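From the pipeline queue, job 12 of 40. The input is one protein chain; the requested action is below.

Action: predict structure.
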Amino acid sequence: MNRRFVVFAVAFVMLASLAAAAAPEGSWTGWITDTHCGAKGASSKHGDCAKKCVEGQGAKYALFNPSDKKVYNLDPQDKAAGHAGHYVTVKGTAQDDTIKVTSIDMTPEPKN
């Protein structure tokens, strides 16, 4: 009886871990910036600066989402590299402050 309980408990923990790890895919719209400048780099004029920060100062590409005012790290970085300074929609899964990117597509900039 004790062994059954242990097997059941282990199976339950494994299933719960899988369910938690399988976060649903979502989408976020905003500016591709870098982790050094964050929200300050939320413009089309910031593309060259973001590239310099990533290539020479150890920053990472990030997404500034103006609707929730958060800066998300992007993983993998190579998907964001061609979009520095662009207004985009990022699809993927979020865990804490990182988005595991499945796609990045350019989106029309909002009108101010």
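Job complete. The first helix runs from residue 2 to 21.
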